[in-house]
Amino acid sequence: EVQLVESGGGLVQPGGSLRLSCAASGFTFSSHWMAWVRQTPGKGLEWVANIRHDGGQIFYADSVKGRFTISRDNAKNSLYLQMNILRAEDTGLYYCARGYETQANWFDPWGQGTLVAVSS
Amino acid sequence: EIVLTQSPATLSLSPGERATLSCRASQNVNNYLAWYQQKPGQAPRLLIYDASNRATGIPARFSGSGSGTDFTLTISSLEPEDCAVYYCQHRRNWPLTFGGGTKVEIK
What we know:
The complex is a heterodimer. By secondary structure, chain A is an all-beta fold.
């Protein structure tokens, strides 16, 4: 069974940092694009970043470019999101998602999400 | 940025009825459009990709159509478990964006 399990969320002050992790199992992690997608009260579903199966291509939403870094460790079947200079508008539920079959930009399945709250 | 506008915001129908959900793109996205279903307390699930292809395991009552700027998700005969919010998403260019969702309620 394909599983994606996120962790690392929590409450952080504005300007702070968090590192999210996503543990993947049940499929060949090193063969798939992976992504982070967030769901926020203000903007609904928002794509955050994508990374190619080998890490050789990475794309970011403008809203996080320069502050967030997506990475992966194929030996550990893990995806990461380093989030720096956090803002209140980054508050939301962060999902890890797999590229569907060979597709980079359709997402399925998704994890259950990890909650990030940015507040003083 | 391509804006996806979904309508209606809420659809309230009885079991067995046909549901028609709309997604309009602010620019041509060719057929690069997907539909997702999100049930309460759950993550989204891919239903349809490339406008009309059902994802693995998706029941045949779900179908997608359209190209360019106008797209439709049809649920041919509503089941109680179809109560959810449905989102569209494009992959025509960066950034990838989602629509605001249509909530389907079962009477």
